[in-house]
Structure formats: C-alpha cells, structure tokens
Amino acid sequence: MQPKDERSRAHLAEYKTYGPPDAGWQELNYWHDVQPDAQGYCAAAIVNERLELPFGRGIGLAIRWRRDQLWDLVQWKQLGVGDYVTAIEPANCHTLGRREEREMGTLEHLAPREVREFELTFSVLVGQDEIAAFEASLPAVQC
Fold first, then answer.
1. Three-state DSSP class for 24?
2. What is the pLDDT of residue 31?
3. Domain annotation covers residue 108
C-alpha cells in the first residue's frame, strides 16, 4: 500500500479506520497492491462489523475483480462534515492525472474501435457470518 501524498502518508496508521465527521478534514488517498488468489482474482471490502441492523449485526460491500484487467486498488477517504464519503475502486491507473501516469508508464490507451471488458462482482455482506466467510476467502497475503 502506498499513500498518494504527504498528507495521506501522515495518516497512514489510520487508513483502515473511520472516525466521526471532522470539519477540518482533508481527503486522503491510498493505492493498494492487492494480491490475487490462485485464479487471478482480487477482493476488497468496506465493512462495519459493529452496525446493529434489524437482521443482525454487521454489514459490508465487497468487490471482486481480475488483477490482469485492473491492477490497482484506489482507496479514497473524505471524512468531512457534510462530505463524509469513502471509495474503494479497482483501477488501471493511479489518481495523479494523465501527465503523471504517462511519465510513470502507467497511462493506457485504447486504439480506435478497441473494446476492453472488465469483470467485477459486487456483493453485500450481511451479518457477521458473511463478513467472516469473505475474510476467510482472501489469500493469506493481505494489506
């Protein structure tokens, strides 16, 4: 995992946790080098294990994708008052812009009429059992 900038680096110890809204918050960004399983799939999730719901405790959103199609996972944290949002985004780039991606050799181009397909699966994890099953399905090497 790599922080995008110095502000993100300063909050590195907190990349997995989310506190209450903060009026002075500035966004943080991290790039995760997620390791695929034996079939070439990566997985990540945002989970709240403590949230009490009518159907039980805990909920999450999981994403599964092919590493050969989307090699990066971008995490965005914006925990401001009125702008409390986060994202986990499988990607074929970082979040620096075209010029920087070109300089890094990561800018991808599509030829005229070229088509690319990406395989992603989204799952809602409902309750502790589904959250635990998702975690157990992950490869041993995790960020």
1. coil
2. 94
3. no
